[in-house]
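Lab channel / #folding
Pinned by the channel admin:
"Please post every new chain as: sequence first, then the structure tokens as a reply. Keep commentary short and put observations after the output so the thread stays searchable."

First post following the new format, from NK:
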Amino acid sequence: MGLVRLVFICCFVFVYGENKHDGSIKHDDPMLNTETPNYKEYCVIGAGPGGLQIAYFLENAGRDYLVFEKDHMAGSFFQKYPIHRRLLSINKIFTGKTNKEFNMRHDWNSLISNDDSLKFGKYSKEFYPNADSLLEYLNDYATKLNLKVQYNSTMHDILKRKDGLFQMWDQHNNAYTCKYMIVATGVSEPIAPKFAGDHLIEGYENLSTNLSDYKGQSVFIFGRGNAANDVANFINGVTAVVHMLGRSPTRLA
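Reply from TO:
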């Protein structure tokens, strides 16, 4: 049997919420300009690393805020991604230095806090750690720092009212209003370029993690970001050749 050429679109996928409601709430209702249901000064959408980090600063500043997370845990993106479970963010614990700022530059996973127990190096010693360690870390970060996170809340139809406030609804049509809206949901949908034969592409979100499926294959990867390198690193030992194509040269942090 000849070599089979596989083509992948490599990107992270994270869809936060659907943009719809049941029609019982009218977006042009003038009452939207006078009522402030479930008001918070700051609304943060998403309890991933970005959402938790801004929540920490809001908590320390004594601000009125709430983080909305669609899943039952913080960092839910990392339950599935990266699909091969090995992070590409380094966890260099032993730098030979005592300077905290220098050491933090070699720690790509820890969030900023005033709690020294919340350093990622206490959760994993691996240079390229497992994604499950990051999940554990993020949920401990949210719990130990008493961050205000409302789980199982899928928000949709975010709009800015005439009075300058933001309003949105959850999956139960409960309305929320806030003065400042911070969206920390990451990439919202797959990046899929259109060209002849694109129906043959297999997306990163659906790739097999069984190495035997790639033995002796010539593999062409569209993209040179984290997801693309995740796939290339995983299959490189069993493939005949791996080609990677990107719109620009690879940029490292």
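NK: Confidence is low (pLDDT under 50) at residues 1-19.
TO: also worth noting, The domain at 30-183 is CATH 3.50.50.60 (FAD/NAD(P)-binding domain).
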